[in-house]
Amino acid sequence: MAATTCWGAPMSTNGTEPADLASDDGVETIADELLDQALAERRALVQLCLYALDRASAGVVARIEEGLSSIGVVALRVDGERFDPSQHEAGGAVPTDDLSLQGLVAETEVPGFCDRGRLLRAPIVTVYTSR
Q1: From CA 79, how far away is CA 26, in angstroms rounded?
Q2: Dihedrals φ, ψ of 76, to 5°?
Q3: Are the CB atoms for 127 and 106 separated by under 8 Å?
Q4: d(Cα 106, Cα 81) in Å, to the nearest integer?
Q5: Bridge-partner residues for 130, per DSSP?
Q6: pLDDT tens per residue across span 55-101
Q7: Does the pLDDT value for residue 25 go beyond 50?
Q8: 112: nearest Cα among 70, 58, 64, 73
Q9: Of 124, 54, 117, whose CA–CA distance to 88 is shortest?
Q10: In what order do the strands lie in the sheet with 89-96?
């Protein structure tokens, strides 16, 4: 039986490299497949972290957010920003008589997350509205 690598490719006759890696096309194909797999696994792990974050204690939330931030996934807390329905989800409203507050986010109820500029989850916010 011929030796195989961990991904099932046959080894070269001297056992030092997979036989199909001898050509550049084979290397590119395997590299592309491995990159696609790594990116899919990263997306799955980020989603798992967001799921866990929603159910964690404050200390664990801080640690998960720190870890996510280190790989480019940042929490979005938009308190004081102008409400943007394309970027925020309204979860509630707070009536106000102060005209300068109308349409601003009063509080971020559930933080959103952005992965290197791509919105993963919109923050759920409470918005100031006129009385």
Answers
A1: 51
A2: -115, 110
A3: yes
A4: 8
A5: 96
A6: 999 999 999 999 999 999 999 999 999 999 999 999 999 999 999 99
A7: yes
A8: 73
A9: 124
A10: 89-96, 124-130, 105-110
Q: How many CB atoms lie within 10 A of CB 68?
A: 20
Token pair 């102008």 is found at 82
Beta bridge partners of 91: none
Total number of residues shown for the chain = 131
Contact 125, 89 (CB under 8 A): yes
The DSSP element (H or E) to which 66 belongs, if any, is helix 58-70
Shortest CA distance to 46 belongs to which of 116, 122, 118, 115? 115
Q: How confident is the model at residue 19 (pLDDT cuts 50, 70, 90)?
A: low
What is the DSSP annotation of 68-130? HHHTTEEEE--TTSBP-TTT-EEEEEEEES-TTTTTBEEEEEE-EEEETTEEEEPPEEEEEEE
- Give the residue carrying structure tokens 């005209």: 99
